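FW: tagging you since you asked about this chain on Friday. Here's the raw sequence from the shared folder, copied in full. Didn't touch anything.
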Amino acid sequence: MVGLQMAYAKSAVSSQQIIDAAIRVLARQGYARTSLLDIAKEAGMSKGALHYHYPSKEALIHTVLETACNVVQARTTQAWTPSDNPFEALWAARAERTDEALVVADLLALSLYDGALRPKLAEFYQLGAEQIREYLELNLMSLGLESRISLDMLPRVVMGLLDGMVMQAFVDPDAFTPDDVVDAVETIATSIFSVGSGR
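HL: got it, structure written out here
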């Protein structure tokens, strides 16, 4: 029984080693220029050992995407306390060029052609939308303000603005400052609210 537990523990460590290596290589080279051999070399193991855990590049990529989304989401949550401006935390988690953020951006583009990646990315956006909606309900609607558009749609609009700005920042880092983005997104989001009829 002890031998089985050690083998399982070693297998779990090897699997995490592969995922970590894959994230580093994908962030550096992108999906299109990354092979399983590249990932195996980065992980310090043979391609056969990698295949033991992940029989195909696609199987590995799905695990990598889940891991990268979870890390980006956790960073957003850690950076965001209820008293903070959520747009700053959302911007910071998306604009920081961490390996995980780069992988999410690369695999988001790949999802145009690979529908199997879309459910995890949809979940990633759903969690972000729920965070923004919670903030808006707590901080704006409690003041008697009403949204001029659906509260289901508003968080998606905010994330669309942020993600569009992140893509621009990737290609032209000097186009604007983080404060410019946060101020603009906050102004747009809050301008959608009006004083409710009950006030």
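FW: The mean pLDDT is 84.
HL: agreed, and The chain has two domains: 1-55, 57-195.
FW: great, closing this out.
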